[in-house]
Structure formats: structure tokens, C-alpha cells
Amino acid sequence: MPVFWEQSLDLSHVLIDSMELAQQELCKQPPTRVLPLLLLHGLLLHRQLYGMKLQAHRGHWSQVTLTQVLQIQDQLWASLSNPSAAMQELAASVFYGGALGDDKDREALISLTQACLSPRKESWGQPHTPQYLLATLMPSPELEELDAIAECKAQMHLLPTPPEPQVCGLSAGPQAWLLQRQSRALLSILQRSSPTWVPAPRGGSWRTERQLRQRLVLAKRRLESLQALLTNTIRQDESGAGCVVLGLNVRQPLESFLQMEVLELCQLVSVLQGDLDCLLQQLKGAPSCASQRCAAVAYALWTGRLPKPWRPHAPAGPQPPWYWLRQLSRRGQLLVRYLGTEVPKRIFHLSAFRHPRRLLLSLRWEAAFATDQYASSSNLPGCQGSSSNWLPHKRQELNSNPLHFQVVNDSKLTVPEMGLLLIGLQLWNAEWDPLAGALQDSLSSQPSPLPPVSVSVRAQAQSTNDQPPHAPHAGLATYSCPVYMEGPLGTTRLHSRNILMHLPLPTKLSPSICVQRRVHVCSPPLS
């Protein structure tokens, strides 16, 4: 019978172990001074259970970290007039935040550090927050030290398992995901530790080869159909190509961006067809290909993984290869529809694009060209008689015309002038209140649909007193919400480098809570 041992990261266990460690230290401090640090350490360790749902990288903290922090705090209180501020800065930037390489991970850690080490008095009474948990664990000031420690431990033992997610700086949703993840991990360990526990099906190799052959044939047909669709679209647009610089049609940057997306997808499909055809020939009895690329593709498809040569074209991260190939077909259909509309509606789904950031850049280029709408064509870049000073001048205009984002709650959609609408976005770790037009707490493990987002260019000359349409309700804070591309099964890589943009969303939650809970918007895979 296999025996498994795993260090518990449950909050109550971590807090009790940390309290006992603090008692063993030579430099003993009163519980009221130690408890905020113990809670911060416990919350950070407990949040590691949620892995990629809550952070880009795992934190590497241990009891050694806590020992060092306690020793430094004792020295600070003995030598400084304002030790609390110094301890908060050291904890956030050195002991816990020093090893974090991601900006959003560090932002969440700083927010948790402030909540535990420097909570505002008015926030102690707010339920479902780390500050409220700290107030619950804090012993009565009238108690002696031993009695205060005993009361702290008693309160720690009373914490539910698993703890209430909100007091850990989490939303309610990830707990269901965590239980499923732990169940799958335990099942996987059991299967690996005892090969005879689940007998292998007979004829497994033959069945796998037949299934692979069927999938290859189906995928190749789908790619051939997509290739024909894209090629026909490219031929229709070639006659309308105008003066081009840096891959953009200076008269219609947005249309040129769409054309470039179609062209890149067409080239990718051609390469993928060659990869699949090579593997199909091998399954039919042809000798193995000497190409390293073909070998890597074949090995990955046999094991059901996305081949490494394909991964640069999957911005949402690794995913099942057949799922990704179906997404390519859906992307191509949408791109052709966007280009083929006689009167462009300018309503887009971010997941349709390989380079979604370029969509926003093309909008800013469009605004820059609009400022010269009365200029002669001889002044356009790349054309005869163009000015050498034109490009730096336009770059300055790009910087002076920022993008304005606004969630549209109206039932009647109106595409803004010199702008576009983004649809299909989903909100994670919070939900959208359509009546208030703001973020609010969510008890669901599923994402909340976000209404269409209006994106427009606001010229620098526009008055700062002008209110944009659908302005946020007065009195609500604003949270700068990151937007990511979502992978299959709701997986999102929360690295800062993957952020497409930030949406300024009104929120009924405090922005610090949104930061702790990693509230974010995703563009889901195309259905």
C-alpha cells in the first residue's frame, strides 16, 4: 500500500506551525506584534495551492523565510522610531517580493502586505477580507502573553477547512477548481505508483495509431478547406492594395491589419499541411523523415501534445493540437468575414487575431492619418515625394492620441466614430453588474460575460472636461483590469508579458481587493 506525505498548506495548519515557530525563537515578541507577520506568511503559502489560477510564478518561501522576518522585526522595533513602515517595505520588496519576477504577482503581494501589516482601522470591521481575519485572530490586549498565545491558537483551530476564500484575498470560484485539481493529482499519483491498479487496455497501440490516422485525415481536410478560403480572399484584396509602409495601408490601417492577419494565417496553414502530410505518409509505410521539425511534430502528435514548432503560433499557451487546429479554422472564417463586409461594422473578437495588440495599434494609426486627411497623397510615406520627417511626426501623433475604453451597457450597440467594439470578453474572479455598470463580488466558479467594450481614439486636443459616453457612476473607484488571451478549459497564463491591454472598470469592490483576487478579463477561445 503506497503511503503519501505532503506538507499541508491549509491556512489553519500553516498559522499554527508558524505560531509555534515564533515561540521557539530566542527573540520573543508579543503575539499582537507577531500575528500580522504570521498571517501574511500563512496567506502567501496557502495561495500557492491555487497555482496558475492566482499567479504567474510560484513563490519559494519556507520557515527559514519566516524566521528571518521575525528576527529582523525584533531588531527594527529595538532600533527605529517607525518600525512598522520599515517592516512593511522589507517584507514586500526583500523577504517575500524580492524573488518575484512578475509585475502583477508583485502587485498582489504588496496589496496583501499592506492589508496584513498596515491595515486601516476602518477596514477591520469589513467582513470577508484579510483585515477581518486578522481582527478575528488578534487576542484581547488585557490577556497575559501565554493566555494570548493560547487564544490565538484556539481561533486558528476554529478556522474552516478549506478557509473562506475571501479572507485569503481570493474569490469564491477557484475553490471548486482547486478540489478538482487535487483529486486529479491524487489519482495520477496512484496510477503511477501502481501500474497494475488500472490494467492497460488490449490493443492500445493499434487503437492509438488508428485514432491518430483519423484525426490527421480530418485535420488535413479542414486545413485544405481553410487554405482555399484564405487564398480566394487574398486574391480579391490584391487588386485593392494601396500605398504600403511597414506592412500597413496608409489609407486604411485597420483593413491592412486584417489583410496581414489573413496572409499570415494562410502561410501558417500551408506549413501545417506539410507537417500533417509528412506524418500521414509515415503511417502509410513511408520511411521516417530526417527533418528535426517533422520528428518533433510526429512525437508530439503521438503523445497528444501541441508540437513545439507550432507553439509560437499559439499565443494562449500550449493546448491539445486538434483543438488548436479547429480554432485556426474558426479564426480564418471570422477574418474573412471581417474583410468581406462591404460596410465594415468594426465589431471584433480578440481571439480571432494572431496579433491582437496590432488591432489597437492600427486604430491609433488610423487616427494619426485622419489628422492629415486634407494633405496631398504625395506626402504619404512610401509614395513618391514623401517627406523624410513624416514617420517621426506620426509617431508623436500616436503617443498624443491615447485609446479610450468603455464598457457599453446599452442594448443598442453603436460603433464609435474612429473606433471599434470588442465582443465576447469574459470576467474572472468577479462579475459585472449591468445595473450599476461596475464590478461586484461573485460566488460562481464560472466567468461572467462582459458587455461589449467600446474602443476609440481620444485626440489630445479634446477637452479634458468632456465626459465620454456611458461615463462611470460617480463615487465608484476604478480598477485597471488586465486583459489576457484564454487557453482551453479556462486556463490563462497570468504573466504580465501576456497582457493585451488594461480596461478601466468601475468597481463596487475596492481596487486592492481586485488586485489580491487577480480579477482579470479574458478573450475566450472561439466557439
UniProtKB/TrEMBL annotation:
A Pfam match: Dynein_C
GO biological process assignments: microtubule-based movement
InterPro entries: AAA_lid_11_sf, DHC, Dynein_C, Dynein_C_barrel
GO molecular function terms noted in the UniProt entry: dynein intermediate chain binding; dynein light intermediate chain binding
Record's keyword terms, sorted: Coiled coil
UniProt keyword Coiled coil, yes or no: yes
Protein name per the record: Dynein heavy chain domain 1
Biological classification of the source: Eukaryota, Metazoa, Chordata, Craniata, Vertebrata
